[in-house]
Amino acid sequence: MTQINPFETAVNMFKKTADEMDLEGCYPGRDLVARMTTPDMSISFRISLALDSGDIRALEAYRVQFNDDRGPYKGGVRFHPQVTLDEVKALAFWMYLKTAVVDVPFGGGKGGICVDYKTLSEAEKERLTKQFFQTLHPFIGINKDIPAPDVNTGAREMAWGLDRMRKLTGFWEYGILTGKPIELGGSLGRDSATGRGAIYVTEAYLAEHDIDPAASTAAVQGFGNGGQWAALDLAALGVKVLAVSDTSCCLYSESGLDVAAAVKHKTETGRLAGLPGEAEERPVDALWDIPVTVLVPAALENAITVDVARRIDARVIPEVANGPTTPEADDCLFDAGVTVIPDILANAGGVTVSYYEWVQNVQGETWTHEEVERRLKEKMVKAYRAIHDLSAEKSISMRSSAYRLAIDKVAKAMVRRGAQ
Q1: How far, in Å, CA of 54 to CA of 30, rounded?
Q2: 334 — alpha (psi -120 to 50), left (phi > 0) or beta?
Q3: What share of the chain is helix, strand, coil (3-state, %, to 5)?
Q4: Which of 49, 53, 292, 390: disulfide with 217, CB 3.0–4.6 Å?
Q5: pLDDT digit string (tens) for 325-348?
Q6: CB-based contacts of 55: which residues, under 8 Å, 6+ apart?
Q7: pLDDT tens digits for 2-48?
Q8: Active site residue 264
Q9: Residue 63 pairs with which residues in a beta bridge?
């Protein structure tokens, strides 16, 4: 199978949209396409991790900073064996478009380490995380670049990173990282934000198209933080969740899964396989063949290829994962009448509440959970309506619509502030 380069995919989509908008013609002599598709900085470095055994392991690590025309760089940190520089560049690229879509004053950033993080001991994980942030500390800051959690990282890793920053600088700056524990300046509602934001826009779609949630069904591919919260919130809406999957299996129940029980089992055992009860265990790939109203891809990039797209029978696909649909599959789904709510909108809840966390840290405030949820829903639904309306007006996909709105917003900021 041909390896799909996520950064090339992202840039090609950008260039296609920029051509349709005549971006260069609107701003002649500014070379905007090249400027908006080239990272401001790509940092590659080696981490030498001391294992508990006494052995040393050399690991590749990255941080990419991509376009700060609308504010400081912002983006997660993922520790995964498939991490590459091109993947990190793509994720940072999507992030600056995502923040523009939901009108959050940040640019794009992403970091990662190529490591099988789950195999490390707790002590090895702490050493690795603190060394990652120690190496990057000259490049990050509360008004420069603000990391957050991503795949295989969470509040624990952000606490370790904050501790290392405190020791290096000699003072506390809670806003230097987001996704932190509540006790260390984290925001209420941050843990659920990515999955919940996706369901806010899904709920708006269902309402706009007169689809009753209680008469709807769903399947969720990927059962990490985003997938779990998406499944829980779909069930809370009254949607029957027929299937969920992780790398161990696809769980299916015709009468609907007990999502809370699946989340509890996954949290306790690290996998969906072996869930007590009557749910049927199927091969992981079987999830794509289940007809549903709502299909949620919540794992890694390029999960939905053309071959997979042809198997899908769904009404709407909110992308909780980053880049889960290849361009060819996206065209296939659009032609088939399937609405894809693109990642740069659907999963923007995470960076939105990260922004709220940053604001609370900077202002020395603590918002209630209700206040965070109210602000999140308002911002996500407002962005959804703008993208949906342009999509309907131009008869284009929601992804094309989202890219157009984001490119226009960033281009205006870039031109008005002058050359770099």
Answers
A1: 54
A2: alpha
A3: 50, 15, 35
A4: 292
A5: 999 999 999 999 999 999 999 999
A6: none
A7: 578 889 999 999 999 999 999 999 999 999 999 999 999 999 999 99
A8: no
A9: 43, 111
User: Which is it for strands 294-297 and 217-221: parallel, antiparallel or unpaired?
Assistant: parallel
pLDDT for the residue 2: 58
Phi/psi at 396 (nearest 5 deg)? -120, 165
Q: Which of 89, 98, 110, 130 is catalytic?
A: 110
Which phi and psi (to 5°) does residue 372 adopt? -60, -45
- 57 within 8 A of 49, measured Cβ to Cβ: yes
Sequence-ordered list of residues with C-beta below 8 angstroms from that of 348, at least 6 positions apart, any chain? 98, 99, 101, 102, 104, 197, 380, 383
For residue 281, the tally of other CB atoms under 10 A from its CB is 14
For residue 26, give the amino acid letter: C
* Spans of all domains in the chain: 42-175, 193-346
Backbone angles phi, psi at 321, to 5 degrees: -75, 160
Q: If we measure between CA atoms, which residue out of 304, 294, 310, 157 comes closest to residue 227?
A: 294
Over the Cα atoms of the chain, what is R_g?
Answer: 21
Instruction: Specify the CATH class of 193-346 in words.
Output: alpha beta
Question: Class for domain 42-175, per CATH?
Answer: alpha beta
Task: Fill in the amino acid letter for 196.
Answer: R
pLDDT in tens, 175-221: 999 999 999 999 999 999 999 999 999 999 999 999 999 999 999 99
With beta carbons less than 8 A apart as the criterion, state whether 113 and 136 touch. no
Helix (H, G, I), strand (E, B) or coil at 63: strand
Q: pLDDT value at position 300?
A: 84
* Phi and psi angles of residue 73, each rounded to the nearest 5 degrees, phi first: -60, 145
Q: Is there a contact between 137 and 164 (Cβ–Cβ < 8 Å)? A: yes
d(CA 223, CA 281): 15
**CA-wise closest residue to 207 among 400, 380, 343, 381:** 381
Helices (H), ranges, 336-368: 343-346, 349-363
pTM for the model stands at 0.94
> What are the residues facing 66 on neighbouring strands?
108
Cα separation, 321 vs 140, whole angstroms: 25
Residues listed for the chain? 420
Residue 340 is which amino acid?
V
Would you state the structure tokens that stand for residue 271, as one six-digit string?
């996998």
Q: Does residue 271 carry a pLDDT above 90?
A: yes
